[in-house]
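Subject: design request, 230 residues
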């Protein structure tokens, strides 16, 4: 495969895909293939798994298990294909078949050959932090993610809910971008993060009312604050 096709550092194209109901194929259900399968299922994808010995996958919702050796037809109609076998030459063939059918594909043993890589993920509700080293060091990507996890605690899931609710309520609408740009920094400067983490609903509401306007309550935003997240 043409390794010059690999993106130069910083020149790849991060994207947030919606995979609900879309067919993704994982060939090879070893330790690595199973990690890919878990991520795909979390995103609601329909997953076809091809492996002659697919341990403990039968009966999983949204998983079609094809318990035999790979054939080219297995990747037909897929949006994403993961060549995750322990056979490098086979992975290369899967990659070529997948691309011929219009799928985006990766070979887990050869980052340079494929179309995309997966980042290490930190999820806080609707907030997703994704860390990539462009294939340089997956272990470093995971370590950076773990550092971010200390800074961005579970309170950030609530933060995103509050920010999205304010936007949806048209208290800050798309037509008032400058307003959005000033309201959120003011809420953060007012320690919204700390107040949410402490579960201090009254202080959160005082801040909302000072920054956003009288009458803005957590209830009217549809938010119930978890008690003391830290
Ligand atoms: C290119 C890429 C392709 C892709 O899979 O997308 C790829 C490729 C390879 N990974 C290898 C090894 C390891 N990968 C992990 C873990 C993860 N690997 C992930 C991504 C990626 N791995 C993509 C690049 C991402 C980037 O560069 O930032 C993560 C972030 C996301 C995920 O997979 O979901 C996930 C974090 C899990 C988490 O969330 O904690 C660990 C650590 C562990 O297992 O604990 C090790 C062992 C330690 C080490 O080697 O660093 C090897 C060598 C295999 C060998 O030598 O046999 C190759 C092949 C090669 O480099 O040639
Ligand atoms: N991308 C990543 O994050 C990582 C990649 N790797 C690389 O990934 C590869 C796989 O690693 P593991 O999952 O640990 O190996 P593994 O040996 O646990 O799994 C390989 C799977 O491929 C299946 N397989 C073999 N031939 C097949 C065929 N013809 N059709 C369908 N399935 C077939 C096997 O039955 C097995 O279940 C290795 O080459 C390793 O170098 C390793 C660690 C991390």
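Subject: RE: design request

Done. Sequence follows.
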């Amino acid at each position: 495969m043409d390794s010059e096709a690999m993106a130069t550092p910083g020149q790849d194209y991060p994207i947030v895909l919606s995979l609900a109901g879309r067919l993704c194929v994982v060939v090879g259900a070893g330790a690595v293939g199973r990690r890919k399968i878990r991520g795909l299922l979390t995103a609601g994808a329909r997953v076809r798994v091809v492996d002659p010995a697919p341990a403990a996958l039968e009966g999983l919702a949204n998983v079609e298990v094809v318990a035999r050796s790979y054939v080219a037809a297995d990747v037909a109609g897929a949006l994403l294909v993961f060549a995750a076998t322990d056979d490098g030459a086979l992975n290369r063939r899967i990659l070529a078949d997948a691309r011929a059918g219009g799928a985006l594909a990766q070979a887990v043993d050869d980052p340079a050959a494929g179309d995309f890589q997966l980042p290490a993920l930190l999820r806080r509700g609707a907030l997703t932090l994704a860390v990539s080293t462009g294939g340089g060091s997956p272990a470093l990507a995971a370590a950076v993610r773990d550092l971010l996890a200390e800074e961005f605690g579970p309170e950030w899931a609530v933060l995103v809910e509050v920010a999205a609710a304010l936007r949806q309520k048209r208290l800050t609408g798309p037509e008032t971008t400058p307003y959005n740009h000033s309201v959120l920094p003011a809420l953060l400067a007012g320690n919204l993060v700390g107040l949410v983490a402490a579960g201090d609903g009254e202080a959160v509401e005082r801040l909302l009312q000072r920054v956003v306007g009288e009458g803005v309550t957590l209830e009217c935003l549809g938010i119930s604050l978890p008690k003391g997240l830290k």
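The longest helix spans residues 138-151.
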